[in-house]
Amino acid sequence: MPVTSSSTRPAESTTSPAPSLRSGSLGTADIAFFVVSAAAPLTVMAGVAPLAILLGGIGAPVGYLLAGITLAVFAVGFTTMSRHVRGGGAFYAYITRGLGRGAGVGAALLALIGYNGMEIGVYGLLGTATQDTVHALSGTGVPWLPVSLAGLLLIGYGGYRSIDFGAKILGVLLAAETGILVLLAAGVLIEGGAHGLSLASFTPGNVLVPGTAAVLAFAFAAFTGFESTAIYRREARDPSRTVPRATYLAVGFLGLFYAFIVWTAIQAFGDAEVVEAAGSDPAGLFFSAITTYVGAWAADAMHVLIVTSVLASLLAFHNAINRYGLALAEEGILPKVLARIHPRHGSPYVVGIAQTVLGAVVVLAFAAAGADPYGQLLLWVNTPGMLGLMALQLLAALAVPLHFRRVSHREGVLRTVVAPVAAAMLLTTAIVLVVTHLDLFTGASATVNTVLAGIVPAVFLAGLALARWLRRSRPDTYARFAAEPPAEADAAEAP
């Protein structure tokens, strides 16, 4: 047998595959955990639903149902696009297909502002929620800033680890926060409410009232982040099925769960008394109800679980931001260094570190200015984020029929035209409702509200300008923007 010397032996490749996201890591339930956790159901119910009841009366549960129906209609076209666009850019990739690269770049910047706004502002809520919990349980006070900074580090670590690690954490936290609300509902149903159970909340006379417009504004805000299912396409098992299923599951669960829990809270006090109770102590409405129907220990548990609910929302948004940042770094819109993926955890860890640093800068800036962590850090930063994501939903709905007019496909007209056009009309109404009731979200002056609302069109216009610059100065980058990845990039779709 001939011997081959080391000098003549063919060179063996020592190059290892480049690190990549963990394809096939997430199933339907995992992705649904991410998007439902981002909505923070317990925080929305205990913190915002009393205001919806105060403004809209006992018809408030229907507002959440109507918002859920609207977003389910939007999901029809959105999930249809998800089967035809394989890239990781979700919103901006869909919008590029239908409205062109200029609008796509504008949408990419809106996504960065929207998701960062929704996350960074919530660090103010983390600080105040922890303050309230510590005071309720021990009677002592804690400063909000160290809590918020500790939260930044904790969430940064969660994003640094693998995506399935985050899914397991969110699964536990989501089960806990929804569990305490189910416990409240069970107590109310078993006891029969304050005066017996009533379906008056669903009658036209209680729904068609002036305050319903404000309820709808709160309700649409309560679903923010549900569309991030498509961001996890590259890590999903069989994404052409998993992403649509997770989207419908998230929308359906949130719409029905919100409406049911708000209705049970109304029953806890009675149709005639609940509005007065919400007006006298909105922050304590749910705690009072669970103390009465379950026990003081459950109210203590609810205080703790609100903090974990906020943490779950932060981790979900952090992971979404990381994947948008990764996609844009791979596109060449953001610095290439942000496209690095951890060789062990398969996470976009560099963009995660950058996002954590950005969050720390914003939080410290608000603290240095003496701003209120809830009334200013949370509300002023969250508001343009929420409006940005709603604007992205509208642009995506408009993009669907325009895209399918240009390509050959086998999708039905209901999915590619009727549902997206209906969703665009409904989302336009929702945006108008939110903008015209912005003072309910911010508690700020008309000048501040104008600035906050104006950030969204300003960012989109900046994106259009950036697209024009890219087309002139970096034509290769512009031409590759939101292009379809190679077919093998969807290898995870195999069952």
UniProtKB/TrEMBL annotation:
Name of this chain's protein: APC family permease
InterPro entries, sorted: AA-permease/SLC12A_dom, APC_superfamily
Span list, region Disordered: 1-22
Organism: Streptomyces peucetius
Amino acid permease/ SLC12A domain: residues covered: 35-452
Chief site of localization: membrane
Keyword set includes Nucleotide-binding: no
Places the protein is found: Membrane
Membrane topology: Multi-pass membrane protein
TM ranges: 31-55, 61-79, 91-115, 135-157, 169-190, 202-226, 246-266, 286-317, 349-371, 377-400, 412-438, 450-470
Superkingdom of origin: Bacteria
Keywords linked to the UniProt accession: Membrane, Transmembrane, Transmembrane helix
Presence of keyword Transmembrane helix: yes
